[in-house]
Amino acid sequence: MSNPSPAQVATPDLDMSRTMPSGAKPMIRFSGICKAFGSLVVLDDLDLDIAPAEKVALIGPSGSGKSTLLRVLMTLERPDKGSIEIDGAPLWHMPKNGGLVPADGRHLREMRKNVGMVFQQFNLFPHMSVLRNVTEAPVHVLGIDKDEADARARDLLDMVGLRDKVNHYPAQLSGGQQQRVAIARALAMRPRVMLFDEVTSALDPETVGEVLSVIRDLAHEHNLTMLMVTHQMGFAREFADRVCFFYQGRILEQGPPDRLFNDPQNERTQAFLRAVLES
Question: What is the pTM of this model?
């Protein structure tokens, strides 16, 4: 039997786009976002509001648009249609002559400073020490004094449990340690929004816990807006204020973790969770 389309499995009486309190100002607003790669539609007229300091887990089958949504927010992929705002400011557009025009490179660079992202692969500079990996962008992009960047980097590396590795190089670290350096590097840019794209998928099972522990501490102790694409359902339940289930470029169902995991209303959500839990 073929998979049902989103229209066939849409659940009545559930708002699949805006779930913030009435009158609240979102930190992030996606409005009518569309993105296709050739004939493959990966984001299909998607609306989503994220509140300040909200922690949101994005779940769903591979290819459903979760990672692409993060990449569009990080300005790594340009949407084909729609708009994005960060704290009320347009991301892919900029004001000009009383209207909005496509953003130029300078605007995108300024807006990008609000967002930090940690990828599946660690993407550390192999020829730089751990300390320099964390200080390089704050010094050269933000213009922070080198001594100040150094002190902040050491504090962040201490926070992720790696203060004793400041002079090591990436090749001398385990995968879990490299991913923790990547988290410290993203935080060093002082973002208001943190994105995590399946950050444990490239790790050995025994190192997954140390990375999730760092993210757990960030979620509990820092006033960051956080979006996480993950296949770790147990961690999504613990980490998130809200879980969004993606399917074919749309959000079919979303809600508090206990409600979505314990009593999913959408047939496609039920089938996905059943398959994940059985595996």
Answer: 0.88
Which of 80, 67, 78, 64 minimizes the C-alpha distance to 249? 64
pLDDT for the residue numbered 19: 59
Closest CA to 55 of 236, 231, 178: 236
Tens digit of each residue's pLDDT (9 = 90 or more) over 171-199: 999 999 999 999 999 999 999 999 999 99
- Torsion sign over Cα 179, 116, 201, 238: positive
CB 48 within 8 A of CB 54: no
CA distance 166 to 178: 12
Q: Where are the beta strands (DSSP E) in the chain?
A: 28-37, 40-50, 55-59, 81-86, 89-90, 93-96, 99-102, 115-118, 193-197, 225-229, 242-247, 250-255
What pLDDT was estimated at residue 3?
43
Name the band, by pLDDT with cuts 50, 70 and 90, for residue 206. Answer: confident
82: which 2 tokens? Answer: 């729609």
pLDDT of residue 81: 96
3-state SS of 93-162 is EEEECCEEEECCHHHHHHHHCCEEEECCCCCCCCCCCHHHHHHHHHHHCCCCCHHHHHHHHHHHHHHCCC
Tokens 């708002």 belong to: 15
Alpha carbon dihedral 14, 15, 21, 23, in 10-degree steps, equals: -150
Whether residue 269 contacts residue 226, with contact meaning beta carbons closer than 8 Å, is answered with no
